[in-house]
Amino acid sequence: xxxxxxxxxxxxxxxxxxxxxxxxxxxxxxxxTFDAVLDxxxxxxxEKYAPFNRLVDxxxxxxxxxxxxLPQATHDAFKAYAESGMLSAAQDYDIxxxxxxxxxxxxxxxxxxxxSVSIGSSLLSVGNxxxxxxxxxxxxxxxxxHNEFSGRWAGTMCLSEPQAGSxxxxxxxxxxxxxxxxxxxxxxxxxxxxxxxxxxxxxEHELTENIVHLVLxxxxxxxxKLVPGTRGISLFIVPKKMVxxxxxxxGVRNDVALAGLNHKLGWRGTTNTLLNFxxxxxxxxxxxxxxxxxxxxxxxxxxCMFHMMNEARIGVGIAATMLGMAGYYASLDYAKNRPxxxxxxxxxxxxxxxxTRIIEHADVKRMLLTQKAYCEGxxxxxxxxxxxxxxxxxxxxxxxxxxxxxxxxxxxxxxxWPSEWCLEANSLAIQVHGGYGYTRDFPVEQYWRDNRLxxxxxxxxxxxxxDLLGRKVLMEEGKGLTLxxxxxxxxxxxxxxxxxxxxxxxxxxxxxxxxxxxxxxAWSTGVPxxxxxxxxxxxxxxxxxxxxxxxxxxxxCALDNDPQQESLETQGHVGCAKFFxxxxxxxxxxxxxxxxxxxxxxxxxxEGAF
Length: 610
What we know:
about 55% helix, 19 helices, eight-stranded mixed β-sheet, two-stranded antiparallel ribbon, 14 strands, alpha+beta
């Protein structure tokens, strides 16, 4: 199967995306318009992204002390993407959008992630603009968000700092009112920011005429002290170049300076920066301090930023999935064409017999099937979450509430599961290539390097795990977990009546029960240190259970359409489900064992014994 046939099945047969056109927001669309979007994005990805994936890896961004230089291919790719309208795909018609369902937008963007994940910065620009559409003033939307949707400007999110990393409580960037009348600036209450932000993707480039930074900073109290913790964090719009209320550049550079580029293992085509805010290199009105405009209320910035972070987590999950998929396709092609070894018969190997292609070896099939199960399963999960976002925005009140609860529980999995297991798929793709996989003559080593970053992007594995076990499964008296359990059991009950899937349905029901027991036992003492000591194994077991559900549901859909499994596509779906239940789901027993016993081996291991 190709990526396109996989997407078509998941979108149309499994998720019934065309059914969304009965809703007012999507009434102008139909299967043909959705297909046209996918056709366009597939073509642009094939022509403007894929041929240059290796080039942007080897010709990294260069900073000469004044500006950052990127390959022409990156400029061309971004221009083609912006002109396609995909930056504003989900937005209203009256601001130039297409009013596409997010599930179609996510599927279309999968082509670009598969072709070259590190070209362009559309994920952050769209997330930045969407945050402003949700929390900004009308003028902030018009001046900043609309220009990002058009591709005229780009956007970033500036959270981390050199001394703080993921610990946002320790953010030290300061924002002070910018003189008398600061609160009456038409673009928002005006502040001066001073501080440093590290690991800022697309923080400096010449792809667009301006860059809109969304920056977390703290406003000092009356004594000039910063409020401890996250309660004092506010959010600010800090443009690279100053603009007026009409969205025009004023010709004044804001006091945001590039201190240097970070050179990472992967995603080398994207600039990754250390930015200095307010150091005085570009004084505004003769004063040091980067000019920023308050978004929302003082001290409520983190709540606003989570709007962008949660969206970005699903985006990272899609990126990880598609990097795994790219490696899978490359290794599948290699395995079909690489002759090596001979079949073992009753009389042993016949050295004079022709070589067999490596795809005929059982262990190579195991590695290919593992990749397929991980990557296609992850893609189904991400599109399911995207479909939930459509429900949240356009469904009935009850459907929207259920979608919200499910997304709360599933978002940590949507981010973390692909970033772990699709990375493993990339490792297997290298293995299928043998010694050639470790060379730059083949693309699979780059896919692995690019994907290794996704376990860090938008919150580490440990952060996602503590969010899941420490908050999401407990929130609102466990409503989200209960709802997810009901959805899983609905699939179990349906597939119990399908002979080919009935054993898997029973196994999934047992796994779900085991996860529930582990959740209760983890918190049975009420001691967070004990419950969360094994949060990552819990998340791994939870994620594998969710993916088993996804595969069972997908296989059930395939068999509904093709009960006799006459097509290879159906055989692929059902075979992947069988593989996942036989080879992957049994792993949860070891993970849940340490969760249930609240094993403290890791937590209590003495530092000096390392």
